[in-house]
Specification:
Elements lengths: L3 H23 L2 E3 H11 L6 H14 L3 E3 L2 H15 L2
Parallel strand pairs: 1-2
Length: about 90
């Protein structure tokens, strides 16, 4: 019998594969922000956001897609803008 962790990992892997395949049909890149939002809406994996980004990026590259790491950029730019407003 499979362990719950194995089942959850497999579900996540299948979901990431489906997401990358869907993106590949219409676009030549994957956005980590869009992937994060789509995947977390369906499944709440017990992994960090960074690990999720890495899994998506790895599969995207294997499928010949570019990866835009934009989720962290948005967080950093928001922090920067808030700090600028404090002056």
């Amino acid at each position: 019998m499979q362990q719950p962790e194995d089942i959850a990992a497999r579900r996540l892997g299948i979901l990431i594969e489906q997401y990358v395949e869907a993106r590949k049909k219409r676009y030549d890149y994957v956005s980590t922000e869009q992937a994060y939002l789509a995947i977390r809406q369906i499944l709440k994996p017990a992994i960090s956001d960074r690990e999720l980004d890495d899994m998506v990026a790895s599969l995207a590259v294997k499928n010949g897609l570019a990866v835009v790491f934009d989720r962290q950029t948005k967080a950093l730019s928001t922090t920067f803008l808030h700090r600028q407003g404090d002056r």
